[in-house]
Amino acid sequence: MTDKKINLLFAAGGTGGHLFPATAVANYLRDNHNDKVNCFFIGTEDRIESIKIPEMGFPYYAMPITAFPGKNMKGIMYPITFIKAITKARSVIKKEKIDAVICTGAYISYPPGLAARRLRKKLFLMESNVNPGKSILWLSKNATKVYTSYEKSADYFDPISVFKLNCLGNPVRDEILNPPTKEAALKKYNFNTEYKTIFIFGGSLGAKSINLAVEKNLKEFGEMKVNIIWQTGKNYVIPAVIPSNVKATVFIDDMATAYSAADLVVARSGATTVAEISVLAKPSILVPLPSASNNEQYENARMLDESKAAILINNDKIQDSLLNSIKQLIENESELNNMSERIKEFARPNAVKEIAEDILNTMIS
N or C: which end of the chain has fewer CB within 10 A? Predict the structure, then answer.
């Protein structure tokens, strides 16, 4: 395989949590091994990857795939959709002479993973959460290697697949790994540099329970000597009047600056968020999304909570608990420092490089 470029097909998307680890690895390979590797992507017709990947300049192929719609008419027709997705993945693998497929989980991964197996291509899996999703578990039996983010993930795999596991971490985007200084971040937000800063967010759609908890306590937050960055998501209408120390916005494009300004983070506990706050050593209050398909957000938050590296508050408790939890933490410099040190134990800042290089070495050897 050394006499030609290696062609890799990334099957990733649906959410940023499944997409960004893949793009981080692909970008690394393009930047450092463009003479050896070509990277292609396959995903849905209308989710985040269908927009972001072409913007990044990678060749992109769309499959007619969705999550299982449930026991209804669409559910009855789903096998046809699934077969079409496998057929599309097979055609891409053949057309682009793909040598290996890299899957990051969720329903998008399964058809290309099956196609890779049937066409006898190498298959690499990347699992970001503590407890692996169904697609990763199903595909692991036929995988060449499985990259996990946490040692504890080994508890969920069958005895045969365990030997394929490599705990290298969850790849974090380069811009997050290289944030601006705290001084520059506070200046950008025009914040009082003598106050602690709290960064509250819930993803592109927002987190309803977190937003309602913030709204409920806006008056009290306005009376506190703190700065607050509040990213609401597009499914929430920001109140017409908010305190001057609260900067509310629907979406944040520059997450690195918001993180850099923060002394405390309040967020969901998706794999990407957990990886980012770990490498940045940010104390956090984590509110798991209760509808997550595999309860993965709860398991992510529980792992950190049990190590006293973060505080877990259940979704149905956040409205009553948020204000007091923030007050207790933000006024306790010692505990903030302790949490910052503890969460470093979960950080894998070299995950992108280590996974990319291992894939490349496995293909060349």
Answer: C
Q: How far apart are CA 230 and CA 244, in angstroms?
A: 12
How large is the C-alpha radius of gyration of the chain? Answer: 21
- CA-to-CA distance for 223 and 218, rounded, in angstroms? 9
- Superfamily classification of domain 175-346: Glycogen Phosphorylase B; (3.40.50.2000)
**Cα 326 from Cα 329, distance rounded (Å):** 5
What is the per-residue pLDDT for 3? 66
- In this prediction, residues 74-88 reach a mean pLDDT of 87
Q: What is the DSSP letter of 347?
A: -
User: Which residues in 306-316 are b (16+ Cβ under 10 Å) and which e?
Assistant: eeebbbbbebe
Q: Please report, for the chain, the start and end positions of each structural domain, with discontinuous segments joined by +.
A: 6-171+349-364, 175-346
Report CA dihedral (266, 272, 278, 282) to the nearest 10 degrees: -20
Q: Strand order in 60-62's β-sheet?
A: 60-62, 37-43, 6-11, 100-103, 122-127, 145-148, 165-167
Whether pTM exceeds 0.85: yes
CA-to-CA distance for 277 and 331, rounded, in angstroms? 20
Q: How many Å separate Cα 349 from the centre of its chain?
A: 14
pLDDT for 69: 66
Query: Tokens for 237?
Result: 């209408």
The DSSP code sequence of 233-257 is -TTSPPPS---TTEEEES--S-HHH
What CATH number was assigned to the domain covering residues 6-171+349-364? 3.40.50.2000
| Residue 79 CB-density burial (10 A; 0-12 exposed, 13-18 middle, 19+ buried) | exposed
Q: Rounded distance, CA 335 to CA 340, Å?
A: 8
Residue 309's Cβ-side half-sphere holds a number of Cα atoms within 13 Å equal to: 23
**Angle between helix 110-118 and 73-95 (nearest 10):** 50
pLDDT tens-digit series, residues 22-46 = 999 999 999 999 999 999 999 999 8
Q: What average pLDDT does this structure show over 147-173?
A: 94
Contacts of residue 17, Cβ cutoff 8 Å, sequence gap at least 6: 128, 270, 271, 272
CATH fold match for the domains 6-171+349-364 and 175-346: yes
> Residue for token digits 């597009």?
234
